[in-house]
Each structure stands twice: as structure tokens, then as C-alpha cells.
């Protein structure tokens, strides 16, 4: 441990000692009342209005099974392009639009020389590393420097 770390540890111990000797403060009455009211309001919510983790287990299982079944049905319906005996004619404009968009993107991608694509990827990688470095520099400068006493 160098001298700076020892000094920081001593300072931390002194601050901890001073703060632990202070009396506990009571929250303002308005804040305490608001917090307790919000806790009571959330406790009174029905199970289906709470977060998914607080749902009863049978409801969670039923939701997951239904979701998986709907996903499977969607994939089957799109691969067969029919749902029972009714053709999905309403989906043709969307499918045509998406295929036209991807076809146009493929034509543009084939028109770009590969060297330009590699240069663009390299430039993007350099920018990514630069932004990562700038973020690390900013973090060290703005957040860690005050803790180290600089």
C-alpha cells in the first residue's frame, strides 16, 4: 500500500467514526406519510397490475405458455401463408414492401466496392475504441479524481 492509499484509508476511517456517532434523523412527516401511502397503494393493487415477478406462479406459467403458443402459431402461419383455409391476402402488401426494401438494399450493397466497406468498418471500429477511451478518461477524471484527492 502506498502513502496515498494509507492516507485515504485513515480519512475514510475518521469520516466513518464521525458519521456513526451522529444521531439518527427522522424523515420529515410529509415524506414519511407519502412513502407509507405509496407502499399501501402498491400493496392494494390486484395481482395483474403488479410486476410480473409478483404474479402468482400459475398465472406466470399460463402467460408464458400462451406467449409461446402465440409465437409458434405466428411462425406456422407465416410459413404456410394460410391460417386454416383462409389465405392471408391482407399480408401481401407488407410482404411485397419488405421484399422490395431488402432487394433495394441488396442492390446498393453490391454497388459499393468491398474496399470501401472494409474502410467503413475499420473507421467505425476506430470511432468505437475512441469513444470507449474518452468515456474511460471522463470517468477517471470526473468521478475517481475527487476520491483520490487530486
Provide structural commentary.
The protein is an all-alpha fold. Helices cover 75% and strands 3% of the residues. The chain contains five helices and two strands; from the N terminus they run H-H-H-E-E-H-H. It has helices spanning 3-21, 29-43, 57-80, 92-111, 114-148; strands spanning 82-83, 86-87. The chain has a two-stranded antiparallel ribbon with strand order 1-2. A hairpin with a 2-residue loop joins strand 1 and strand 2.
Oligomer: single chain
Order of helices and strands: HHHEEHH
- By DSSP, the count of extended strands is 2
Mean pLDDT: 86
Give the structural class.
mainly alpha
User: In this structure, how is the largest beta sheet organized?
Assistant: 2 strands, antiparallel
Radius of gyration: 30 Å
Termini gap: 18 Å
What is the topology, as strand order, of the major beta sheet? 1-2
Summarize the amount of helix as a percent range.
over 70%
Number of helices: 5
Strand content: under 5%
Large-scale geometry: flat
Which residues sit in consecutive blocks of at least 5 with pLDDT less than 50?
none
